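User: What would this chain look like folded?
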Amino acid sequence: MGGRRTAPPDLRGYLSAIERAGQVKHVTRPVSTKYEIAGVTALADGGPAILFENVRGNGRGFRLVSNLVGTRQRFAAAVGARTERAIHDKVISAISKARRPKVSRRAGLFEENHARDLSVLPIVTHFEKEPGPFVTSSVIYAENPETGAQNSSFHRLMPVAGDSGKTTRCSVRMVEGRHLHRCFEAAKKLGQDLKVAITIGVHPAISIASAYQAEWGRDEMHIANSILGGKLELARLEWSGMYVPSGAEIVLEGRILHDVTHREWMVEMLQTYDHKRRQPVFELERLHYRNDPIFHDVLSGYAEHRLLMGMPIESKLNGELGAAFPQVRRVSMTNGGCSWLHAVVQISKRRSDDPARIIKRTFAAHRSLKQVTVVDEDIDPDSAESVEYAMATRFQADKDLIIVRNVRGSSLDPSSDQKNLKTAKMGVDATIPRSKRPEGFEIAKIPGIEKIRLERYIG
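Assistant: Here's the prediction, encoded as structure tokens.
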């Protein structure tokens, strides 16, 4: 007697979990994919996930979710961490214990429906001066030409209208030198298109693993499987031969063309417009989607985008710096630095040169960083006010400032030399000088204040 199929970890299971926690709001009124969904999501930034039940012009019944992992609390839920502080331990452990997922002998759940035109998808137009709508939650799967392993990574897609009246092509935003670009360049040198698969709408642990910059040749799905406790299930696609999560809502198969480009630009993590680039073009071969499908949209430059991209880097920094320097307590990618350009490192200072050595190592671990500030244990690295206090009381610009000139930086920073990817970087030692009397820096405390409830006195 055949048993009922156990659902693999997927977007729906995660949505159900955060809904039970009161973290999902439903929008039942009709909404437009042009600016309206983006506007509602922006106003809900830092709040609940939004599930749009009635998307205008959507004949296939797609619902749309946004702000899915828009808080650290929901990020913790996505990786199975009991608290926000436990996120990095969970992610670091998953990276070190990455293991191969099982491959299902059955067809993926996404094989329930098929199409050959991208126009069936409720793709959102987000910002006034972007050239069109963008798919912003897409994970692309490609084969590593050197190892044969798969690579998985985040890339945004912009539909490109064709002469036939059907939308079967979209530009693919690639960062030069990153893994998908290397796979593409290897195929291009042979005069070949690159076969790929693309998923939209997966369990956020899969998205988080795909946003992590793993070593060349490592399969990010092994990390995702470890985050999900070994429960990830992959399905093999017949046309492309790629292995994708069997519970994905939407799967595209096709080629990234070796000889076609399209000019586009988009809003990035800094909420600024990237400069115009000619990008490779994906051509759709097959499109699969589940019954009652859910489309996932990520609003660029807002909390979900920054957490999805920045938190894996924060975990990486906590792991690498903690291993290299036992005195490192915690690393925080700051909100003001868009979770990408600025980091604060909290340490238990042992030697006068600890901050300088840690600053150097932090810049090396994440090349996009533009500023690193090192603070003592009594300073909260997540609090901009606390960090500024450390700078005001423990930092001298002529002694504690490190300037690094003309080095590789982030392509996102509009103030940098974006053509040559060069920037200047700043390290700030905002720790207590060992040459000064320590009691002069002690933050005064009021005994028993933690037991006092103000409403009992002035209610």
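The CA atoms of residues 411 and 418 lie 6 Å apart. If you want, I can go into more detail on any region.
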